[in-house]
Amino acid sequence: MDKMTLNDPQAPLRGTIAVPGDKSISHRAVMFGGMAKGRTTVSGFLPGEDCLRTIECFRLLGADISRTGTDLVIDSPGIDGWQEPADILYTGNSGTTTRLMLGILAGSRVHSVIAGDESIARRPMKRVTGPLQQMGADIRGRKGAQYTPVSVLGGPLRPIDYDMPVASAQVKSAILFAAMRAEGTSVIREKEVSRDHTERMMQNFGMRVQAEEGVITLQGGQELVPVHVDVPGDISSAAFFLAASALVPGSEVVLENVGLNPTRTGMIDVLEAMGTDFGVDVSRSDDSEIRGTVTIRSSSLKATEIGGDLIPRLIDEIPIIALLATQAEGTTVIRDAEELRVKETDRIAAVAEELGKLGADIIPTDDGMIINGPTKLSGAVLDSRGDHRIGMMAAVAALITDGPVELRGPGCIAISYPEFFEHLNNLRGN
Ligand code: SPQ
């Protein structure tokens, strides 16, 4: 499916959906299960393309992984029992798989080569390979291991004391995985706290890790004890329906099982600042990941300012927040978000150009954008640019245009949300 036409704008969204599993947590569940010796089980796994790539990598390393829908059973010989992969570890479009695997493989006993698609080949890897090399990792790759393909010869590692130059959970997690295998204590300092699913899952798998005010301390050489992981729904996927329901008059949507980890809930803060009509009901906080139900109704919106330590808490939601801002009264300013330029696409350029085709008034800046609203949006031909979040932003934008939108390249949405169009149709009564 390389294009589709999105018709019938303005039809309200009504009903309840269970949000699919969190992508970040699904990757990590497979990674921890693949490293731990014995049987790990997972429920609520996201069978999106990126997470399926992670499963394939661990199969090549010798883990036996069976999947029934969103349930996984992982039987692993443990990291010290892995086999040398007979093929390249292909990570597709997944930055999380690529970067976290580098940290895991650095302290393993196998030689491997990692490569992904043309988007991954453009994304910066030195932010991970640099600190891993400081730990003694034998990593080589294109342009001094700045870009994939990268080869990793696993071996003994030194601990590290590292000040993170960028707020990135992928960099932090890759270093933490390597630090698990190093002899001694590693310390990582974050300027702004990024998502902490790796630290939480380390504790679930029986490890001791200290994380306080952006300083993470980990003693290497600890054993992982396999457990059951119940993955909550992905707030980054929920974000598209939160926005759709806020935008289309007459809508009321209930989103169940939404992960509400405080390092991920920046979107909720923005919905509040913009004056949307929503409620959050925490249903479970008895395990390490909080989850709950979010109900949201169509609302009039006001502009807001987004920057600083809020950015890592909503980095993947900025495209859909930008769409909300086009319908808000006033000028919304997004700053400190230069990381958007090195995602699956340059998301600052993609948002400004694609929404601009509909008539939105968005001025891109080096580290964000300035959005003047409200503006009337008209139908046009939009391109996902192979980026799932841009594709979903375009599909939600099509709900409020005054004519049909043709979306080129909708297939990439399956990277993080395979049931997106099914859920959208259900909520619109189709
Ligand atoms: O895996 P990938 O492609 O990097 O996914 C994205 C996304 O939009 O789904 C980013 F493009 O999410 C990242 C997120 O931006 C997932 C992630 C994680 O699971 O650790 C952390 C964030 O990236 P970063 O670079 O800030 O660490």
From TrEMBL:
It catalyses: 3-phosphoshikimate + phosphoenolpyruvate = 5-O-(1-carboxyvinyl)-3-phosphoshikimate + phosphate. Residues 9-424 form the Enolpyruvate transferase domain. Its EC number is 2.5.1.19. GO terms for biological process: amino acid biosynthetic process; aromatic amino acid family biosynthetic process; chorismate biosynthetic process. It is found in: Cytoplasm. InterPro entries: Enolpyruvate_Tfrase_dom, Enolpyruvate_Tfrase_sf, EPSP_synthase, EPSP_synthase_CS, RNA3'P_cycl/enolpyr_Trfase_a/b. PROSITE patterns: EPSP_SYNTHASE_1, EPSP_SYNTHASE_2. Catalyzes the transfer of the enolpyruvyl moiety of phosphoenolpyruvate (PEP) to the 5-hydroxyl of shikimate-3-phosphate (S3P) to produce enolpyruvyl shikimate-3-phosphate and inorganic phosphate. Belongs to the EPSP synthase family. Monomer. This is 3-phosphoshikimate 1-carboxyvinyltransferase. It comes from Bhargavaea beijingensis. The gene is aroA.
